[in-house]
Amino acid sequence: MNGSKTQELARQALGQLADELEAGHSERLKAYLAAMGRFRAYSPTNVLLICMQFPQASRVAGYRTWQRLGRQVRRGAKAIRILADPAEGQVRRQRGHRTSGCVQGRLRIRRQPD
């Protein structure tokens, strides 16, 4: 999934949330707010992307982070795509962190195994 598809997924998710709220349904908003509480370090857009791709996610991390935590990502597991600012990657590299992903225009797609 490239940057434009990820952005389109985010717009679609936001549209669905707005449509449900206009129709008087708040279940999706409650789920989104609960996810925002679980993923405080992520932007609202990225939380929305996580919810759309893997609604039952309780923790999200990159492949190497899971390895450092003593966990192993299952072979064939699909990544959760989120948007990240390229400047964030530069800061992470300066701090000694490795980043994975591919640059798509001005945004970087970060792959986070579920």
**What do the pLDDT scores average to?**
77
- How many strands? 3
Main sheet attributes: strand count, strand direction, barrel closure: 3 strands, antiparallel
Strand order of the largest sheet: 1-3-2
List keywords for this structure.
alpha+beta; 5 helices; 3 strands; 114 residues; 3-stranded antiparallel β-sheet
Please give a structural write-up.
This protein is α+β, with helices and mostly antiparallel strands and 114 residues long. It has one domain. The chain is built from 5 helices and 3 strands, in the order ααααβαββ. Strands 1-3-2 form a 3-stranded antiparallel sheet. The longest helix has 20 residues. The protein starts with a helix and ends with a strand.
Topology of helices and strands:
Blueprint: H1 3-22, H2 27-38, H3 44-53, H4 63-68, E1 79-84, H5 86-94, E2 102-104, E3 107-113
Antiparallel strand pairs: 1-3, 2-3
Helix pairs in contact: 1-3, 2-3
